[in-house]
Amino acid sequence: MYLQFGKNFEDTHSYKTMLFNSIPFLFFFPFVVLVYFLIPKNWRWVWLLAASYYFYMCWNPLYAFILLGSTVITYVGGLLMSRADNAFSKKVILGITAVLSIALLVFFKYGSFIVDNVVPFFNILHIRIIKPEFDLLLPVGISFYTFRSISYLMDVYRGDVEAEKSFGRVALYVSFFLQLAAGPIERAKNMLPQIHNPQPFEYERVKNGLLLMLWGLFQKLVIADRCAILVNHVFADYEAYRGFQILTAILFFAVQIYCDFAGYSDMAIGASMVLGFSPKQNFNKPYFATSIQDFWRRWHISLSSWFRDYLYIPLGGNRKGQVRKYLNVLIVFLVSGLWHGAAWNYIIWGALHGIYQIIGALTLPFREKAHSFLKINTETFSFRLYQQLVTFCLVCIAWVFFRAPTASDGVNILWNMVREWNPWIFTDNSLFNLGLEAKNFRVAIFSIAVLFIVDLFRNDDKMRLRSLLSQQGIIFRWFVYFAALFFIIIFGIYGPAYDASSFIYAGF
Length: 508
Fold this sequence. Notes:
Number of helices: 19
Strand order of the largest sheet: 1-2
Order of helices and strands: EHHHHEHHHHHHHHHHHHHHH
Strand content: under 5%
Helix content: 55-70%
């Protein structure tokens, strides 16, 4: 028996991208801001919608049709639910529109993965399938705007927000260019009122937004892209490395992915502040977490809260007994892993975080009894530091599978790390043979130290960098601003031939 798939269309053109750390964005964003504050308030959402679609079409104009299709489904679904006269009709409409939204995501993101895993099954049944060639490029940000659409539909269904009557404003909510490629995943109840009520130009808000964008650029260009050189070098040929060489690459990847994504989020939030919007915080010192559960309250907050509100709670949350609670946790993290990428290594990454939480919950009573029996004061700094180190180690183990090309590569990388004890690499200069020469390695360490200090005082208003700067004289403040800017320009990593390096999460 033969089944054959038709070949999908092939993207044969390359289009100029509009990354936050690119030269085109350096001209595009100020122009958008200038026009935004010059035109009447009633027309500002129209301008932002046009800017958002132009921004998205810089990747590939064809993908604007996919974004538009997702928006139509979202808008029509919200209107139909608002006019439905009974709960059953609303539930049917929600189901249909949610399935349609997810179908777009599944087709573009998971089509090849599904085929790769279904073909062997049919082979067992002696059904020969001619495997199709999927030449579709993954539309930038499709995972993010699909989740924004589903959250809007769910909120309308629950009555948390009223269905928006204006198609254009729904389109802007789904496509807002500062959150389009990699979030944060904004909620309609926070975003739509801000679209309806644009804020006037305020110097302090704009200044704080620009400073946050500058900090995001520092994280991306100076830290993340520099760490990426070492990480890519080691992971591309991990069989040639052992012990602390592998460990160094893993630690650098933990820093890379944090600075890459947190840097993007800070730039997106800062740019939104310039335009008068107030997005929710997306990171809160995740590597200071004292447990895996605490880590997910701090890492990619908009996504973890989305899964809590729209998957974990609808599955029953913790309301249906302990066994069901643990099953729900595992399902959420398996889906989270799959959301990040259509590959088994991402699923394993998600599963590990789910298993960590389940084991943590199961062992909590025993650990509390042990602390009481041994008279361990759990409120001390040393105990908290111990919890943070254990949590960070568990997170790093999972990061290996996130970064490894395949699940089996992840296992081999961990094996290569533990199979040899070679601490002398820290004294014989061989550490500088991992892709980063001595100067760049030292710049990376210095920059990571700056990151650590800033994160340490992030929630302390008295010690926060922006608060401290605001108390200084104008000459000193502007000296610091320009010094930071020149440091980024001089020590930033700009990719091959000075091309802007893409953001990791823009691929999800």
